[in-house]
């Protein structure tokens, strides 16, 4: 089912888990009643008590138990993120609505695909990759995840496990500001620069990007310059609005 075919609905959700992934990122697991139907790559909105809405990408593909996984980045000015980090507990109840967004995995194509995440932009990329790995085809997949320091790759063990289990998936973490004490031996610099170092021509690829607007813009411009077709670029941008992120979808 395509993303645009799904109706937006409101649900009450029981909080089934609240897990710290690192100092600044929280994983929430929500159980909507009844189950919410969505596509990998989409997002939902959390309805706050004051009527405000806070959008978050769903970080898991829509198969299995029906639980929704969210990755919440702490923001000092953010009411919901402060609430989630300090007061939200397992067993609590949240109201959500969704799904929203037109970014989805193009499963009908078997061309190689590059997934590029910045920070908590890993959330929708994770959902898309889980969907891709579930498909029967063994298309070549590349995941580039950019962050400042090793601890910001808050689920680093997961894509490393994927790359070990699936020979057609290559994982490339990229750090922009590793400290000498990190003893980082991997790639450094900006994540889009790492992609450019590895690919000289992209006309036969798809690309998916998620993260801050400036990162996604840099990815878009640099990949188009290497021959990526505009209709094969799918992106999600996260803009700070004082609480979590706001989402803007650009299919191509």
Structure report:
The protein is an alpha/beta fold. It has helices at residues 79-86, 122-134, 157-165, 191-198, 213-225, and strands at 9-20, 25-33, 43-47, 53-57, 68-73, 93-100, 113-118, 141-147, 169-175, 187-188, 206-211, 233-240, 245-250. It has two domains: 3-100, Elongation Factor Tu (Ef-tu), domain 3; 113-250, Nucleotide-binding domain of ferredoxin-NADP reductase (FNR) module (Rossmann fold), CATH 3.40.50.80. The longest helix is centred in the middle third of the chain and has 13 residues, at 122-134. The two termini are 19 Å apart. Mean pLDDT is 91; it is low at 241-246 and 248-252.
Backbone structural class: alpha/beta
Compute the average pLDDT: 91
Which homologous superfamily in CATH is the superfamily of the largest domain? Nucleotide-binding domain of ferredoxin-NADP reductase (FNR) module
Q: Look at the structure and give the CATH class of the largest domain.
A: Alpha Beta
Alpha carbon gap, first and last residue: 19 Å
- The helix/strand order is EEEEEHEEHEHEEHEHEE
Could you name the ranges where pLDDT drops below 50 across 5 or more consecutive residues?
A: 241-246, 248-252
How many individual domains? 2
Percent strand: 25-35%
Total helical elements: 5
What CATH calls the topology of the largest domain is Rossmann fold
- The CATH architecture term of the largest domain is 3-Layer(aba) Sandwich
Strand elements, count: 13
Trace the largest sheet across and list its strands.
10-9-8-7-11-12-13
Shape descriptor: globular
């Amino acid at each position: 089912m395509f993303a645009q075919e799904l109706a937006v609905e409101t649900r009450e959700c029981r909080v089934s888990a609240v897990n710290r992934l690192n100092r600044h990122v929280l994983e929430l697991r929500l159980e909507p009643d009844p189950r919410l139907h969505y596509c990998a790559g989409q997002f939902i909105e959390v309805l706050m008590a004051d009527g405000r809405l806070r959008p978050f990408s769903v970080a898991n593909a829509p198969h299995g138990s029906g639980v929704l996984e969210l990755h919440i980045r702490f923001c000092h000015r953010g009411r919901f993120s402060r609430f989630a980090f300090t007061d939200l507990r397992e067993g609590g109840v949240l109201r959500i609505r969704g799904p929203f967004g037109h970014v989805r995995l193009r499963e009908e194509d078997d061309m190689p695909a590059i997934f590029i995440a910045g920070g908590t932009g890993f959330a929708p990329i994770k959902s898309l990759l889980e969907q891709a790995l579930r498909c029967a085809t063994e298309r070549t997949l590349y995941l580039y995840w950019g962050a400042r320091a090793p601890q910001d790759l808050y689920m680093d063990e997961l894509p490393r496990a994927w790359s070990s289990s699936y020979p057609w998936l290559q994982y490339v973490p990229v750090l922009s500001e590793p400290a000498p004490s990190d003893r980082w031996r991997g790639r450094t610099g900006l994540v889009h620069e790492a992609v450019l170092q590895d690919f000289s021509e992209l006309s036969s690829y798809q690309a998916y990007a998620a993260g801050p607007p400036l990162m996604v813009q840099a990815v878009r411009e640099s990949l188009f310059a290497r021959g990526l077709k505009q209709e094969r670029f799918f992106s999600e941008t996260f803009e700070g609005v004082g609480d979590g992120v706001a989402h803007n979808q650009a299919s191509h």
